[in-house]
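Possible regression after last week's pipeline update?

I re-ran a chain I had predicted before the update to compare outputs. Posting the input and the new output here so someone can diff against the archived version. Not blocking, just want to make sure nothing changed silently.
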Amino acid sequence: MKEDISVLLKREESPTLEFKRQWYWDDSTPSEEMADKWGELIKDLVSLANGYLNKVGEHRYLIFGFSEEEENLYSIAIDKIKQLKNLSAFKKMLLQKLENFTRPALVDVYVHQISIESNTLLVFEIPSPVNLIELKRQLKTKTRHLDEGAVLIRKGQKTDEVRTATPYEIENLKSEFSKYKDSTLFKKLNPDDELSTSEKSIEKTIQLFIDKNSSFSLAEKFPVKERNWKENIIYEVYRLEDGFSGLREFIYIHDSSNQGRTKGEIKKKNLISNFSVAIVLIDRPKIKDVERRKMNIKRLFNSDYVYFIDEFGYEHLYKDCILPFEKFNLPVYVNGLYDEDDAFDLPAIDRLKDWFNSENEPLFVVSGHGGIGKTTLAKQFLDSVKEENQEAGILFIDSKEIISELSRNFSIDNKVSDVFDFYKALMDADEIEGARFDKESLQLSIDNGSLIVVLDGIDEVIAKLGDKFDVEQFITSIFEEYSSGLHKTKVLITCRDHFWNEVGKKILLPKITLKAFNENLANDFFEQKLKGDVKKVQKAMAMADDLAIEVSSPSNGIGNKTYIPFLLDMIGYLINSKDVAKKNKPLSRVSI
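New output (post-update):
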């Protein structure tokens, strides 16, 4: 948690902090009352998430097991509430209900079980949202019916009043969230190193393992998570039981941890019953000999079951869902260029490789004019990724191929706002059979770094779908839902610059703008395209000169010719055509 529980218990209730002595229900609660009980929980979480004016940016906490009036702790009887016995499964159920009732979906919710003085407390932690949340459908509690579209807030510090916001409050809260959204996106792109590493977790990996192996459930008092940065003891331990004396134990060793100290701490606390059969998950290091890291861990922990996290996910969780990828092997490729600040004509492919090898930088944009080579660059980049890692999963989505599917299945009231929407449209449009990702497994595979995603030509979606595509929410979801566990997410977007320039006014993202070819690159292109035939290359350059655009160089102000790659490809095709070679007709000048 961001704040220590002992500090929170000393504070007074506020629009972002609420205490409850007991949970809403237990195993004796009649089934006909459960819908209203769930409604109470959802109401409290939504109102807490929205908070009130001047509270945007604060973490929110809903704490069960403490009476503010009496200043006493009251242990929550987890063993008498079947839904809470497995917190991971409960959280998944809760998020599904929140997705059904909230717009935009309130999914950034953490549930902690904390022991204080032999008392069990339950803490719901909500990082400040970046949007005002409204009800997507009618919500019923024991005493109230809350209408669709209602915005729930917590009004005062003393009154603990949950009510519907007024138009004035809604307008001002939206303004506050809008300003905060810009600042949070900036912070996510420029994260504090310790914060970004401390948030790494395999919780989603374990939950998906449980989902796929339904006989297993999380053992009581697990997981155990240790974040001792001072001593470099950082780990997570999960124990799963199957009800038939079967046991499966997982250890996550953080890449910043001291492995010897960490193992000693785990052994001292007796968290693992048998190290030799425990599954040890580690981050894939940025070194050439990655297998040596695994061998060292195997010797230290005396276990043969050591995996990189993305490797374990691929082999045991979603291998069948990853589509086969054949390298594009482009017959002609010239390295496109871009400018950055006072540096000119930089290789674009090198910038993409640097981004790919960076930490906690999930999204990158390649913009440029139509026909400038954005798709070619993306394909060449994916080929280079595959060369480096044969096991890498790659999902290349051509926006033009899924426009009809997206347009048919989404509307202004149900907008495209998630990577999963693009994935599902691709699978449906191409009628691809076999295993498919669900939303949770797609999020995990991308977050683990097992699947690299390229959304090519997203401007097609912006242009054709208009208000059916919520671009801001789409981008926010990549940061908040697809990069929340291990921060290995890599999503590359290509887009025409005049479309992205409008989006970029609101959202700061790393990007490059591809330049047209200079004369040297144009000549290099024709050398490859025309297989070094000197006469054909000379003829092609002459034709290209007629279509070249005169621009002044930013470095020296001197006028230079630039060449659009798409037109060069057309010229090369015509030159190679027998008819053109025979007729030798001049190509008429066209306007660009």
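Follow-up from reviewer: compared with the archived run. The two ends are 56 Å apart (CA to CA). Marking as no regression found.
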